[in-house]
Structures are given as C-alpha cells and as structure tokens.
UniProtKB/TrEMBL annotation:
<feature type="transmembrane region" description="Helical">
    <location>
        <begin position="105"/>
        <end position="131"/>
    </location>
</feature>
<dbReference type="Pfam" id="PF01040">
    <property type="entry name" value="UbiA"/>
</dbReference>
<feature type="transmembrane region" description="Helical">
    <location>
        <begin position="151"/>
        <end position="173"/>
    </location>
</feature>
<feature type="transmembrane region" description="Helical">
    <location>
        <begin position="185"/>
        <end position="204"/>
    </location>
</feature>
<keyword id="KW-0472">Membrane</keyword>
<feature type="transmembrane region" description="Helical">
    <location>
        <begin position="27"/>
        <end position="46"/>
    </location>
</feature>
<dbReference type="GO" id="GO:0010176">
    <property type="term" value="F:homogentisate phytyltransferase activity"/>
</dbReference>
<keyword id="KW-1133">Transmembrane helix</keyword>
<keyword id="KW-0808">Transferase</keyword>
<feature type="transmembrane region" description="Helical">
    <location>
        <begin position="229"/>
        <end position="248"/>
    </location>
</feature>
<feature type="transmembrane region" description="Helical">
    <location>
        <begin position="255"/>
        <end position="273"/>
    </location>
</feature>
<feature type="transmembrane region" description="Helical">
    <location>
        <begin position="52"/>
        <end position="75"/>
    </location>
</feature>
<comment type="similarity">
    <text>Belongs to the UbiA prenyltransferase family.</text>
</comment>
<dbReference type="InterPro" id="IPR000537">
    <property type="entry name" value="UbiA_prenyltransferase"/>
</dbReference>
<feature type="transmembrane region" description="Helical">
    <location>
        <begin position="293"/>
        <end position="311"/>
    </location>
</feature>
<dbReference type="InterPro" id="IPR044502">
    <property type="entry name" value="AtHST-like"/>
</dbReference>
<dbReference type="InterPro" id="IPR044878">
    <property type="entry name" value="UbiA_sf"/>
</dbReference>
C-alpha cells in the first residue's frame, strides 16, 4: 500500500514540476509582479487606503492573468514542439513529459478559466484578458502565426506586456477602487518604460534560439542581423529605458519620488552594463543566463516603481 502511495506522490510531484516548466516560470513571476505592482500604484496615485474588500479584485485579476499566461505560453509550445526539441528540449512537450493531448487540455482549460474569472471580476479586466488571449493566439497559431515575422512577433510581445497589461490592470483597479478618472502621468511613465523594455526582451529572446529558428525557417532579428548586433541593440534599448526614468526623476514628475527613482535606476543601469561585459556570445548558456538576468530587471521594475509612487 505504501509503495502505491509513494508512486502516486512521485507522479504528482513530477506532473506539478512538468506543469511548472510548461507555464514558463519567468513569465509567471513577471505577470504576478505586474498585477500586484499595478495595484499598489493604483492605491498610491488615488490616495485610497488598503482594505480587505479590494483583495477580491486583486486575487481575481491575479488568477485570470496567470491562467491567461499559461494559455499563451502553452499554445506557443503546442505549435513549436519540433523547434523546442532543438532550442528548449527541457520543456514538457519537447521532452515527452506531456503528450500533445495533455498540452491541448491544459491550454483550453486555462483559456476558459482566464475569461470566466475575468468576466466575474470586472469589465476592464475581461477586456484586457480577452485582447491578450487574442493576440497570443494570433502570435502562435496558424495560419496567422505572427511569430514568423520579426516585426509582428516583437509587436505582439511588447504590446501585450507593455501597453495592454499595464493600462488594463490600472483601469481595472481604478474601477474596483471606485475611482473614475483619467490615467495619471505615473502610469503612463511605467507603461512607456515597460513597452520599450519588453521590446528588448522580445528581440533578445531569439539569440539563444537561433539554431532551431533557422532550422525551421522562423525569421528573427537575430538571424537577420546577427547575435552581436541584437545583443548590443537590446542593451542600448534598456539603457534608454533607465535614462528615461532618470530624466523623469530629475524633472520631478508628479506622483514619482525623484530621489529614489533617479538613484535606483542609475544603480541598476550600471549593474546591467557591468554584467553584460562578461557575456560570451559564443556560449549559448551564457546568453540564456543573461536573458534571465534581463527578466530579473523586469521583475525589479514592478517593485521599484510602485515604491517610487508610494513614497512621499
């Protein structure tokens, strides 16, 4: 009996680990921080206190966005199994941990849950989630499959992460807090920052995947321009992001603590350039590690910016 119980526990553990990989953890963390970060910004700019009632709207948004996240990244994996066997053989569909049917069931379930939870939570959230899922579907699914075209692929990624998520979540939380007002300057600053930042993520992510993309005729900026050019372009795009926030701080933009925003972003910018000097573009694992480092900077912004908005 204990042997059967042990096998069941091992199976559950393996399945959960495979599901965790299937959900692409770095995107899950980014989505979670964006939800909670935008909530804190909404509280800060509307001068609304915290309350237990607000948790319903926050938790609903979090669950809907997480389900939508899994739908989008899962659909991409369903369509890229052969490519992932070259680029990302550790992913569950490429490694055989999940069958195609299991992957399809997870993706359909997550998509339906995302829309249902969003619909029950609020109209702005439903609109944001529905639009994000539509773009995610067009990105991966034939016959449209926008990921085949560098410009449209990048546009899909940074339009969702940069514009739709930030503005949609703020409008949702603003509505939940009972505030009907124009989007404040601080939210526009964050939206533009993330929009440009996500463009860097969108072009950088293809550098370690160049081998499989070339094999299966997926045209990317890396294949067109070369890994070194894309690497440097991404670094300068991120530099523009951080210097932009520094300028905003110097100009003392309303709703953003100037000292904290200037100092924190200059420190991060210096650290990014120092870290970039050690990257060997001939080493695929080194490039992948730096890509994950860029995602950590993405996470950090959703911590630093709400703090800058909450500080007096």
């Amino acid at each position: 009996m204990s042997e059967i119980s042990g096998r069941s526990s091992n199976f559950q553990g393996n399945w959960l680990y495979a599901f965790w990989k299937f959900s692409r953890p770095h995107t899950i963390i980014g989505t979670s921080l964006s939800v909670w970060g935008l909530y804190l910004i909404a509280v800060g700019v509307t001068s609304t206190g915290f309350s237990a009632v607000q948790l319903v709207s926050v938790m609903g948004a979090w669950i809907a966005c997480l389900c939508g996240n899994v739908y989008i990244v899962g659909l991409n994996q369903l369509e890229d199994v052969e490519i992932d066997k070259v680029n990302k053989p550790h992913l569950p569909l490429a490694s055989g941990e999940f069958s195609q049917q299991q992957g399809q069931l997870i993706v359909i379930t997550m998509g339906v849950l995302a829309l249902v939870v969003a619909g029950l939570t609020g109209p702005f959230l439903l609109g944001m989630v529905a639009l994000s899922l539509a773009i995610g579907t067009a990105y991966s699914l034939p016959p449209i499959r926008l990921k085949q075209f560098p410009f449209w692929a990048a546009l899909c990624i940074f339009s969702v992460r940069g514009t739709i998520v930030n503005l949609g979540l703020f409008l949702h939380f603003n509505w939940a807090l009972g505030k009907i007002a124009a989007i404040p300057p601080a939210v526009w600053v964050l939206t533009i920052f993330i929009l440009v930042f996500t463009f860097a993520i969108a072009i950088f992510k293809d550098i370690p995947d160049m081998e499989g993309d070339r094999l299966y005729n997926i045209t990317t900026f890396t294949i067109q321009l070369g890994p070194e050019a894309v690497f440097n372009l991404a670094l300068w795009v991120l530099t523009v992001c951080y210097l932009g926030i520094v300028v905003i701080g110097v100009l003392r933009f309303a709703g953003i603590n100037p000292v904290f925003s200037v100092v924190s972003h200059l420190v991060i910018l210096a650290g990014m350039w120092m870290r970039s000097l050690s990257v060997d573009l001939e080493d695929k694992s080194a490039i992948a590690q730096f890509y994950q480092f860029i995602w950590k900077l993405f996470y950090l912004e959703y911590i630093m910016f709400p703090i800058a908005c909450l500080l007096p």
